[in-house]
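Work Package 3 (structural annotation) set out to generate three-dimensional models for the target panel prioritized at the project kickoff. During this period the team completed the workflow that converts sequence records into discrete structure tokens, so that structures can be stored uniformly alongside our sequence database. As a representative example, we reproduce one entry of 74 residues exactly as it appears in the project archive.
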Amino acid sequence: MYLSYLSSRAPEKLLDVEDANILTGNDLGGIINSATAFAAGDLADSVDNANEFDAIVACLNQLALANYNADTIH
């Protein structure tokens, strides 16, 4: 009984620790700690009366220039 509980919970807990380490961990650098903040750069003030959609397009452009693709937008 205890063995089945441990064998089902241990991998889940390990993956939780791994996810936290990837996001914020010191030994892996952490995505949150090492990511470059969004900067409009050449796109700043290029659109009159910019709205949220324009900001999302600018963010996607910055990712594309860094050879990344967004798979989720919050």
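The chain has two domains: 1-35, 36-74.
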